[in-house]
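Objective 1.3, modelling of assemblies. Example input:
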Amino acid sequence: MGARATSRDVARLAGVAQSTVSYVLSGKGSISPETRQRVLRAVKELGYQPNLAARAMRTRKTGRVAVVMGIPIYNPVHMLAGAGSAAEAAGYVMEMHSVDGNIQDRSERILELAGSRQYEGILSFAPTLPTLEQNAPRDVSIVTSVNFDDDMHTAGELADATPVEAFIEHLAALGHTRFLHVAGPPHFASAQRRNQVYAATIERLGLVSLGIVGYDWTGEAGVESIRALPDGTPPLAVIAANDLVAVGVMRGAAERGWSVPGDISVTGWDNYDVSPFLFPSLTTVDNDRAEAGRRAMLRLIAALRDEPPPDGLAPLNQIIWRESTAAPST
Amino acid sequence: MGARATSRDVARLAGVAQSTVSYVLSGKGSISPETRQRVLRAVKELGYQPNLAARAMRTRKTGRVAVVMGIPIYNPVHMLAGAGSAAEAAGYVMEMHSVDGNIQDRSERILELAGSRQYEGILSFAPTLPTLEQNAPRDVSIVTSVNFDDDMHTAGELADATPVEAFIEHLAALGHTRFLHVAGPPHFASAQRRNQVYAATIERLGLVSLGIVGYDWTGEAGVESIRALPDGTPPLAVIAANDLVAVGVMRGAAERGWSVPGDISVTGWDNYDVSPFLFPSLTTVDNDRAEAGRRAMLRLIAALRDEPPPDGLAPLNQIIWRESTAAPST
DNA sequence: CTGAAAGCGCTTACAG
DNA sequence: CTGAAAGCGCTTACAG
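Predicted structure (tokens):
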């Protein structure tokens, strides 16, 4: 493939002015059907594709948005794919940036990206400083979507954490009275909300909470939280922050000779691909990550267009009951 | 923040020609130290950042590379981050595209991306058609890196699959004589190589293989491969394609009342974040995904610069022995 | 309905 | 050592 065809080449071949080509392609202006046909034929014949850099320069719109990822909690590829296809559908190209470090670092990096003017908007899938948006250039939109759950926030207050309530209600109906919550890091809004819902539901149903512990999205947090329990604690139901934590809880139980679900019921979150195959398989919350990514991107796109954010969306979370939850054995 | 400063604004403030600003910034031409100082001061004062679209148009270099992901096997974020930072270090911006569908679809999409001329190079982390590179525009480099393991291929023949050999040797030394390989899909070069190394090592050591089965990277493949075994099969050692398959194998064993590692030893691949917390914890292969991503990107960058690909790199795979492997109990 | 022309913000020969 | 000028490939008033 030699030199690439330009709109000028197309115009020459079609026997029209170069501006006519532009009008045909943009659908603006008023071009006669015959001229339009000739131009389109020439476009096809030359395999013409417009030079986006030139267009960007002229229109002062880059047509690009950036997505910023922090340390990943769980496989975000589906989320990225969802965000990417939403961006594409809206006529944007999506670029991904991975940013290590803490909130401060990440926020600075986002500001840098905003300053580069390569992007019309930036979507962050990791927590950012609350002051971020004020410091950004006014013509760059920044939307922070801490994680999947936070998208839910836009769909309705606390919709996100309702599975925690459902978990507890169901387990209580099975006969559980004693609960433990191994929570996620508090600077994740989703973790905080689950935490709140946990406490509120325990209180509302008059159940016993053995505590809220962990505050980390790791397997260690799960193991340690069980190791720290006094002998003879079971029966017990553990609401774990996610499936990784839940696996740690199950291991902690096994180490102490406590059976799951006989002695301890365990719930996770995220429906890891291994979770259906664990023994016992893990009760968890499945979330439609692709849709969550799509919605986050739609939120950014709405901001770019000065439209109100999409609202009234159906929840993306669905509880999947599996073998790790059952009535207490005694 | 109002209108953005251009090089012309900088020139005006510094009292020089606009071209001088360009020379100072590019380091080309010969500019006196005083003039350079004045320009740099003006740059800083105005917060000037060059318009990349304009530069791209003028230089006919976009400074962009694309990464294409297929259906993810396991969390590729670290790999993407590694690739991204390598790209950045080489002066490129990396863009990510997720592509669903089969090899055919993916290859077409890559060709489309190449045709868009938005990218100087494209790196695919999923299998592509062998004919792909011939059909691509000659000025766009395309590098396919099926997955982490394939990067190893560039680092030395079969370096990738050597852990399979090490697994088998170690297990044989522990007293295992009967093996089963639950393999990955054959169109993944990495799966194919492990398969070959498995067969060759079994043969070389005079061991017994109960078969090569599965050919899928799923938990079901693991469960089914154990369900299909005749009663009384153990003791046995299973080399699973990855940790997800291995978890399926462990579940299959549990369903049949076979203990791990007493009756069946199991090895995985990828060191999932849950793997250290399984009960028993899973012996597996840890790979430095960030480095693998970096190397894949370096391969693309070398291709862009018409340099030979980097060579002689240390292996990225490391076996982690855990509880799922032991001497057969009888 | 169509064309000639300006200009987006750069880089880079070229002339001085 | 520095500046005036052309041109990358588009879009969009503007004139006809």
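Residues 161 and 194 of chain B are 5 Å apart (CA to CA).
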